[in-house]
Amino acid sequence: xxxxxxxxxxxxxxxxxxxxxxxxxxxxxxxxxxxxxxxxxxxxxxxxxxxxxxxxxxxxxxxxxxxxxxxxxxxxxxxxxxxxxxxxxxxxxxxxxx
Length: 98
Hints:
This protein has a domain at 36-98. It is built from 2 helices and 6 strands, in the order αββββββα. It has helices at residues 17-21, 83-87, and strands at 25-29, 32-39, 48-49, 56-57, 63-68, 79-81.
């Protein structure tokens, strides 16, 4: 029987499971503190509207889910962003649908 050279790391079913199941990282910028979660394309099953460019995020497209880190932030405050739109938010304001 082959020998295991890697240490046991607990019960990890698949790499990257944390990002797909809701783990978020904190980001601080001029516009406040945010919790940011990466949604891989395989987990993106619905269409959303990106507030940065006002374009549709189609199913299967990797993107970010962002919400305020403060205690007043609720599930209704979550927004789905394209990664480049989120990175460029300081250089341009979110667009509003008319």
